[in-house]
């Protein structure tokens, strides 16, 4: 169940971060252009929200710890953001990104070790 929950969260986070990255790179900043873009992708947003929600729910039921599930979700979000940043903008992670991910991994260890 843990693998399914992590895959659901990764899938939903990839969709949401991909939507925002595509918007910032390809969609005109005018209100009506942005509104029309979001109207067209409502099904994607809904599916991504459901995937993340069920991923957190399944991980919470597997670990009996909501805080841990939410921290895992945020950690995955940062990793997905790094990947999406590279795919859309060719941003190379710096040493600060590595330090941030290290802090998150330490947080996993502290929370799970409780």
Automatic annotation (TrEMBL):
Annotated keywords: Membrane, Transmembrane, Transmembrane helix
Transmembrane stretches, start-end: 37-56, 68-89, 95-111
Localization per record: Endomembrane system
Its membrane topology: Multi-pass membrane protein
Keyword Zinc: no
Primary location recorded for the protein, binned into one broad class: membrane
Tree of life domain: Bacteria
Name the UniProt record assigns to this protein: EamA domain-containing protein
């Amino acid at each position: 169940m843990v693998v399914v929950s992590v895959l659901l969260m990764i899938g939903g986070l990839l969709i949401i971060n991909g939507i925002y990255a595509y918007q910032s790179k390809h969609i005109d900043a005018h209100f009506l252009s942005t509104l029309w873009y979001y109207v067209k992708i409502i099904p994607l947003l809904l599916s991504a929200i459901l995937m993340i929600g069920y991923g957190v729910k399944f991980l919470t039921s597997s670990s009996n710890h909501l805080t841990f599930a939410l921290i895992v979700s945020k950690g995955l979000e940062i990793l997905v953001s790094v990947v999406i940043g590279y795919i859309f903008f060719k941003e190379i992670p710096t040493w600060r990104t590595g330090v941030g991910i290290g802090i998150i991994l330490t947080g996993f260890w502290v929370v799970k070790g409780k």
